[in-house]
TrEMBL record:
Belongs to the AHA1 family. It comes from Frondihabitans peucedani. Pfam families: AHSA1. This is SRPBCC domain-containing protein. It comes from the Bacteria. Residues 23-163 form the Activator of Hsp90 ATPase homologue 1/2-like C-terminal domain.
Amino acid sequence: MTTTLESTVDADALTLTFVAEFDAAPDRVWQLWVDPRQLERWWGPPTWPATFVEHDPTPGGVSKYFMTGPDGTRSAGWWRFVSLTPPESLVFEDGFATEAGELDDSLPTTRTSVTLAGIDGGDTRTRMTTVTRFTSADELEKLLQMGMREGMTEAMGQIEAILAG
């Protein structure tokens, strides 16, 4: 059973934090981040599925993807990996992209830290903490108004089915 324990906005720290627990070991949850075919099954809300066209989960590696809305509209994004410590943590920069896959600097770039910690010995259950850091209150507010909190909640809601399948 997946449980989103917490979704917290801290305006002073400029962070948006999600904490969820999954019935799987950290190694298995780690695969959801590094395997692009698994990642695209949950990254993005169910009505905006993601397609990863490039995914290099190594320090300095880049991922490029787009999400497709119900009417065919595409929204592109990119990640640049800062660090990875399998299966415990990863840090990446996250931004929007143009249709050509290039950085769209008219929209905020954030830094996301993901931590996977085994619960009760770590063999069957994992707590995943995802902290997104913003550079200003305006950028935090802009992405919240764009639906980032709701979209990420919906995205994480798809993980349980992937782990069960």
